[in-house]
Design goal:
The protein is mainly beta. It has helices spanning about 175-185, 325-335, 395-400, 520; strands at about 15, 25, 30-45, 50-55, 65, 70-80, 85-90, 115-120, 125-130, 145-150, 165-170, 195-200, 215, 220-230, 235-240, 245-250, 255, 260, 265, 270-275, 285-290, 300-305, 365-375, 375-380, 385, 425-430, 430-435, 440-445, 455, 460-470, 485-490, 490-495, 495-505, 510-515, 525-530.
Length: about 575
């Protein structure tokens, strides 16, 4: 079924009366429509044929190009033999966790049925992607890019590039997604990935496959590369032979435009770099290599100059150092990422007009991840709680209908600080914490393990104010960047280190805070933050959409009284 994208020109006008008695009309923001057919198909990212998940026959899936405040309508037809859901990674879904696509907020799309997502990319710009949250479908495809451009009247802090390229890269397993799921369900780890794919392909230096270019540039022009790590567990580093990378955007924020030879990109993260075609016209390798792994993995793709002559050099630019030196290198790079205070983002006012460093902290939540054994099986936990999803009813729907006791789940099973010593017994249960609407919270992510972590928070962006080795304590706050930390939605935490993030809980709904290492979140390293507006007002949260799929305990229940203005 073909993808349809149509603009809905202001057909509906909302009339309102201003205080002065002047009647005005406000046009709705434009709509984009898509029909997506989800099927199985044979793919070979690493040269080994396997069952993949295609969207309209494509792997990776179709790219969504939109503009700030556009309404996105995606009709998803599930032709798999398993339930399916998509999540829109980094899209904040303002007032609308009903569309977030996590197992805690939505009933899955059953085989042979369809569901239509409807959400707005409200007050956002930047580079994002979508991916499946069900089972281990992410290890089979079903992902694609989502790019939000600034509105015409909003200045962008760099000249329009000659073209806009998208790269979705990540580690990859040759085992099928069903085999990988069986591994986790049996209490074992996924193990090491088999390679790295770049836009669904992989090649090595000198491969005949590498003759087909990823992209073509014209000499003298500058291009925007949007690069996302959509892998399962591996941090990556990317670089382009002979070319510098000017960072201009990170997870929806314009950054200070520093120049790099190589950039680390951790699982779930996206960034935009400008690349100028200022070298001899020939082929060059786009190089991706694994970070902090025992067995290094590398993949390349060709960047070609139009009318160029000559193959890419077989000498690849060196990767950054590994071990403790490599961690220090990566932390220093993180600290060099700064918010562009004078640039506009989705709104005309400068990013720096929001002075987050002057807001008083109302709550501190310290989260410590752990790898544990429960009944002889591998689990992962946060502060001693290993999350499990409800088998029948998504947590948000249970909360909305007031049937939490039937699911069942309880709030605040997990405490704001980890239990130590003899009291550190692991509890396996739905992990939902209450968040107070509009509170400004500080979240400490402390990693006492020997492997790197990445974390993501749905529904929000946060200020990543610090990463340091060791353990966190309150006096560490003196080292926070309270001026120009980047506003983002994903943060890495290095082995034996901690990270501090800050955000205002101003988006009512139920939101997933999770490890982006997929086996870790699948086996419990996640939680949900329930943020309820005491006013029960449409100003704060939308009502349950009419087309919401209902399942489990709420399927036959009458709808609760709707919110009002």
């Amino acid at each position: 079924m073909g993808s349809v994208m149509l603009f809905k020109v202001a057909a509906i006008f909302l009339l309102g009366l201003l205080a002065g008695g002047v009647l005005v009309a406000r046009a709705e923001d434009p709509y984009l429509y898509y029909d997506w057919n989800i099927t199985y198909g044979t793919i070979s990212p690493l040269g080994v044929p396997q069952q993949g998940i295609l969207i309209n026959g494509q792997f990776p899936g179709p790219k969504i190009n939109c503009t700030s405040n556009n309404n996105i309508v995606v009709n998803v037809f599930n032709n798999l033999d398993e339930p399916f859901l998509l999540s829109w990674y980094g899209i904040q879904q303002r007032k609308n966790s009903w569309q977030d696509g996590t197992l805690g907020t939505m009933c899955s799309i059953q085989p042979g049925t369809n569901f239509t997502y409807h959400f707005q990319v409200k007050d956002q710009i930047g580079s994002y992607y979508y991916f499946p949250t069900t089972a281990l479908h992410r290890a089979a495809g079903g992902f694609g890019g989502l790019q939000i451009y600034s509105r015409d009247l909003i200045p962008v802090p760099f000249d329009s590039p000659a073209d806009d390229f998208s790269i979705l890269m990540g580690d990859w397993y040759n085992k099928g997604h069903k085999s990988l799921k069986k591994l986790l369900d049996s209490g074992r780890s996924l193990g090491r990935p088999d390679g790295i794919q770049i836009n669904g392909k992989s090649s090595k230096v000198g491969d005949s496959k590498s003759n087909e270019p990823l992209f073509t540039m014209e000499a003298g022009k500058t291009y925007r590369y949007r690069v996302c790590n959509i892998g399962m567990k591996t941090s990556l580093n990317f670089r382009i032979q002979g070319h510098s990378l000017k960072l201009v955007e990170l997870e929806g924020s314009h950054t200070v435009q520093n120049v790099y030879d190589a950039l680390d990109l951790h699982v779930g993260q996206c960034m935009s770099v400008l690349v100028t075609a200022n070298q001899d016209p020939k082929d060059y390798y786009f190089v991706v290599s694994s970070r902090f792994t025992k067995k290094p993995l590398t993949s390349v793709g060709v960047i070609r100059y139009a009318n160029g002559k000559g193959a890419a050099s077989i000498e690849l630019p060196s990767p950054p150092p590994e071990t403790s030196v490599g961690i220090a290198w990566s932390i220093n790079q993180f600290r060099s990422f700064r918010w562009n205070l004078t640039a506009s983002a989705a709104r005309p006012n400068p990013q720096g007009s929001y002075h987050y460093g002057q807001i008083n902290i109302t709550r501190t939540i310290k989260l410590v991840n752990s790898r544990v054994q429960v009944d002889g099986k591998l689990r992962f936990a946060i502060n001693g709680v290993s999350h499990i999803d409800s088998l029948t009813t998504p947590l948000k729907l249970a909360e909305y209908y007031g049937v939490q006791d039937k699911v069942p789940f309880k709030y605040d099973v997990m405490e704001d600080e980890p239990k130590e010593g003899a009291n550190a017994k692991v509890v396996v249960a739905p992990n939902v914490i209450n968040g107070t609407f509009r509170n400004f919270v500080e979240i400490i992510l402390e990693n006492r393990e020997k492997t790197i972590q990445t974390w993501h928070l749905d529904g929000y962006s946060f200020f990543a104010v610090a990463i340091e080795p060791g353990k966190w304590s309150p006096e560490k706050r003196k080292n926070y960047n309270l001026m120009d930390a980047v506003s983002r939605h994903n943060i890495q935490v290095y082995p034996g280190s901690w990270a501090a993030i800050m955000t205002t809980l101003d988006n009512a709904g139920m939101w997933n805070l999770r490890s982006e290492m997929f086996e870790r979140s699948y086996l419990g390293q996640q939680l949900y933050v329930s943020v309820l507006s005491p006013a029960r007002s449409l100003r704060d949260e939308y009502n349950l959409p009419d087309n919401t799929q209902l399942c489990g305990f709420v399927k036959a229940l009458p709808k609760p009284a709707p919110y009002t203005i």
